[in-house]
What does this fold into?
Amino acid sequence: MDTSKNSAKILLVEDDPILSKMYATKFELEGFTVVVAYDGEDGLKKATEEDYNLLLLDLMMPRLSGTELLTQLRQSEKGKTKPVIVITNLMDKEEQEKVKSLGVYQIMTKAETTPGEIVSVAKKALNLP
Amino acid sequence: MASDADNEFKNITADLYKKNLDLFDANRQLTLLQELYQIIVSTLTMEDLSQKFINTIVRDLDFYGGVVFYADQKTDHLQMTAVSNIKPNSLTDKLQQLHVKAIPFAQKDNAIVKAYNTLEVQTAHALNEVMVPLLVEDDIRSLMQTEPLKSIVIFPVSFGTQALGVYVLFLRREIEELNQFENEILRRAATVFGVAIDRLMIYLSLQTANDKLKELDARKNEFLNMAAHELRAPMTAIKGYISMLIEGDAGEIPEKARGFLTDAQGVTDRLIRLVNNMLNVSRIEENRLVFQIETVSLSEVARTVFSEFEGEAVRKNLKFDLQLPPEVKDRVVVDPDRIHEVIANFISNAIKYTETGSITISLSQPDSSSVRCDVVDTGPGISPEEQVKLFQKFVRAESAIGKTVGTGLGLYISKILVEKFGGKTGLTSEVGKGSDFWFQLPLEGTSGVPKIEVAAGAIPAAPIAITPAASQ
It folds into this structure.
């Protein structure tokens, strides 16, 4: 566990309150600053307005799906090159293709991944030690 | 004498002439029956069957026109399913244009209903005897004036004793003028038609049953999908929090608590595997499973799975062994998570069913183009009869073991997954001695590696330029 602050800020878009609390806790413990959005619409608003270094994005969400959020984000000046890690539990072929074509750092299956592993991938994406 | 011989010659000639005519009629009958047979074997709807049937009769035997009625038991009506359309005339045109094409069974004075009810051939001379209530009186009168119609004959169509409908023929001659052969042909045609309808009904009911089964199966898969997804969210949280506790995120924990948590972690992983199997079986069957194809070292995958199960095996006091000879070539082109799943399914089964002894996981090189992974246990073994069934869906080795746990999906899915990656699975086992579950995969760069469609993965992890750690 690394409790020293790092300067990186994560935007976490995840509708399940328990999971978002868990991921936020883990990232904060690892020294990240975390902003949470609980649905796709709020996520897109924060993703285009707030400052952050990496987007941690769930796909199956109310109001606006993660895939749709990502599509719109990639069209904005700010979100064009933002590193994104997709965390999901269910994805079909078409969605996977779509998400990949929009450019993501990695797609991770939530049920097969621990929060610690997601943090490791995020650190790698941000070139953090 | 000469005239006697002459007479005899004349008689023989007349006889021959008659026989020749008989032969001609018999030939016509055969030809017609053959045509009807062709219709039966090539027709799959009631309308199509009726149309082809009535057209064949009207054309081959030169009738003015004809109609087919089918008895609809649901509505208690004789439903018109076809009007001959090869020799259109004002009568057949009129019948085709009718809006209501059904005669109620209750219309007992109608000769068509009578033929259906009595299963006896009916005859009529006027349209009102058969066309009430389909045609109004004015229509009937004007048709009778313009049409050269002399008689109407109605043949019941049945299968065994069950009345199925009728067919109606319009004639420009008197019924008595139909010769013995024509009568015979028409009766036989009715019989053949009855068989055809019966066969069609069986086909249609089978098709309905089949459609219903398909729909049920799709709904079952949809439910499994939904259930599996709903289960995954809480499992993610349990797995996540346990891992955080073990990693010390809530502070230092006593060694004993760490042991408990490691157990809980193992059980959660098993639960996730079960749910994955449930989820994947429907996705594989619907060809919707997403693969992330990479070239990996099978040894590394085996090592990872091995370490995940070490705790469980040790707790059962089993000797747990991993043999990875360094000379074995092991680069395979697969979705690593799915091959991980296959090995985990094999090891999980081995641990589940083995009470004493050992479990050994090993890699070997059966030939220069493939690598094989064996999971050998000293469990109860599986009888040859059960071995045959074991890789099928929902089959569990029950008799030999006496316990039935799991979903019976693991081996079925493992087999399908390995085959997707160009490999094969197998089993050798002997009751009382143990089992050897194995799979074999083609090595990278060999001809056995299947081309899995691009949609299945093989896209680099970061396909567009992403500026890492760009602080904004």
Remarks:
- Chain A touches chain B through 47 residues (CB under 8 Å).
- The mean pLDDT of chain A is 90.
- The first strand of chain A starts at residue 9 and ends at 13.
